[in-house]
Write a structure and sequence with these properties.
S16 Ribosomal Protein, Chain: A; 2 domains; 5-stranded mixed sheet; 3 helices; 24% strand
Length: 135
């Protein structure tokens, strides 16, 4: 199945994207069938080959969510924008250690609360038993 997606090019910390048509199983930087445009997110400059894009879409190529939103913005496709699913960032080793320490502290606090609750329930049951004996 063909897909229209971004392929990242450009310098470090200055991304630019080619909009390419390729097989879904290929990596975005891999071999592509056609380059149908480009996008610079820093200057918001977009260059699109409308006729070629419409031809591939009519032949069954599926745009990625980000490319679909770009095509809607530029008026090539009519419709509402899609929600883009971004992967969550991985925690650095320091953040992971801090979260482990916090989780240990939380566990200790929970254990202390459970002990207090169990002691309170024991005390209240002793009071009830002593009240019954007095009657």
């Amino acid at each position: 199945m063909l897909v229209i997606r971004f392929s990242r090019v450009g310098r470090h910390n200055h991304a630019q994207y080619r909009i390419v048509v390729q097989e879904r199983s290929k990596t975005p930087t891999g071999k592509h069938i056609a380059i149908v445009g480009s996008y610079d997110p820093h200057s918001k400059q977009t260059v699109l080959k409308e006729e070629l894009i419409k031809e591939y879409l009519s032949n069954g190529a599926q745009p990625s969510d980000s490319v679909y939103n770009l095509l809607v913005t530029n008026g090539i496709i009519k419709g509402e924008k899609r929600a883009v699913k971004l992967p969550e960032k991985k925690k650095s080793s320091e953040e992971a250690e801090n979260s482990e320490e916090k989780s240990e502290e939380v566990k200790e606090e929970e254990k202390a609360e459970e002990k207090k609750e169990s002691e309170e329930s024991k005390d209240s049951s002793k009071d009830k038993d002593s009240d019954k004996k007095e009657e």
